[in-house]
Amino acid sequence: MTLRKLAFGLLASFAFASSPVLAADKVTFQLDWLPGGDKAPIYVCIHHGFCSEAGLDVSIASGRGSTDAISRLAAGSSDIGVSDIGALMAARANENVKVTAVLSIFNKGPHAFYVVKGGKIASVKDVKGKTIATSPFTSSNVYLPLVLKDAGIDPSEVKLIKADPGALGPMLMTGNADGIIAWMTDFTRYTNQGKQAGKDIVALPWSAAGLELYSASLIASDSFLESRPDVAKRFVAAYKKSVEYTKAHPKEASADVTAMVKELGAEDVEGSVNDTLPLIYNDVTAKDGLGVFEPDRLKETWRRVSAAQGIDPAKLDPEKVVNRSFMPKE
Fold first, then answer.
1. Cα of 39 vs its chain's centroid, Å
2. d(CA 41, CA 30)
3. Which residues form the SsuA/THI5-like domain (predicted)?
């Protein structure tokens, strides 16, 4: 009897050992720009283990702007990633790209003027007649005419200088520009530069000046959503969990970023994480919930995007740009 039990146990052990181990589903995540604290959730998802817990093996592809990210997703070289939903709306209206938004990340735009406290500019209306420096590539430039119009300023009344992103801070500190255009995700970086120059730097967010819209969003190729819907749902749930973890543990989330991107400085990353969180968690989140695309705000986003880019608003139903079915149930 003992021999029979032993033989049975050996057979069972052999069968278990020879059975295939289920491999994690591979997913390629597309960044819209370089790594940084504003991208913390994807690094948290991977390094902290939320992705692997969901049965996902995620790799990260760097990008060169929202348009580049959308193109890569449409081509199928990446599965899911992050991009400005305004850029996606324009691409859907003009080219009908097969890419869809599945989760809101920034429910407020990150665009802002940065100025020196006590200088020539104290409010958005004060930029009239002033010299403003901006990067040639930022999506903020698309919305600038709308912000100026809302403030009663003709774009010709502002002297706009295009400069390398790395030169914007020094231009502001030295007075070569009265103000600069940059994202709220870089607030700590610019205020630290100001401290080194003995100046207090103030941000004037465009969202507070009336530019209410969705911005960075989780977007995915339609082929990925259609061919691997279960994988997509597991990824969205893991990513959302990572966003929540980042809010609750910003220091640990920053460490997850620097653990994977070693050339980044810990202080800069942590500052960027904390600067980014108000774009995700704010009064809009309190009203609508994390990750939600509220229909009226979505319509307003398209109204502003179409006006900024000179697109006939009738060319797109903004509801066709989003798919809410991949959002995890609360």
1. 7
2. 13
3. 40-253
Q: Name the residue range of residue 168's domain.
A: 111-209
Tokens 């990150």, residue located: 110
Q: How many CB atoms lie within 10 A of CB 19?
A: 8
Instruction: Output the six-digit token pair for 92.
Output: 């859907």
Which CATH number goes with the domain that contains 171? 3.40.190.10
For the four alpha carbons of 175, 176, 179 and 184, in that order, the dihedral sign comes to negative
Total domains in the chain come to 2
17 found inside a domain: no
Report the DSSP pairing between strands 216-221 and 80-84: antiparallel
Over its C-alpha atoms, the chain yields an Rg (Å, rounded) of 23
Render pLDDT for 217-244 as a digit per residue (tens, 0 to 9). 999 999 999 999 999 999 999 999 999 9
Residue pair 150/80 in contact by the 8 Å Cβ criterion: no
What is residue 165's DSSP assignment?
A: H
Q: What are phi and psi of 255, to 5 degrees?
A: -65, -35
Nearest in space to 117 (alpha carbons), one of 199, 179, 173: 199
Distance CA 115, CA 263 (A): 29
User: Is 5 within the bounds of a domain?
Assistant: no
pTM of the model: 0.90
Total residue length of the chain: 330
* Phi/psi at 176 (5° precision): -75, -10
- Residue 263's Cα: distance from chain center in Å? 21
Q: Which of 175, 209, 243 is the last residue of a domain?
A: 209
Q: Does 266 share its domain with 295?
A: yes
Q: Give per-residue pLDDT as tens, 149-171.
A: 999 999 999 999 999 999 999 99
Partners of 161 in beta bridges: 133
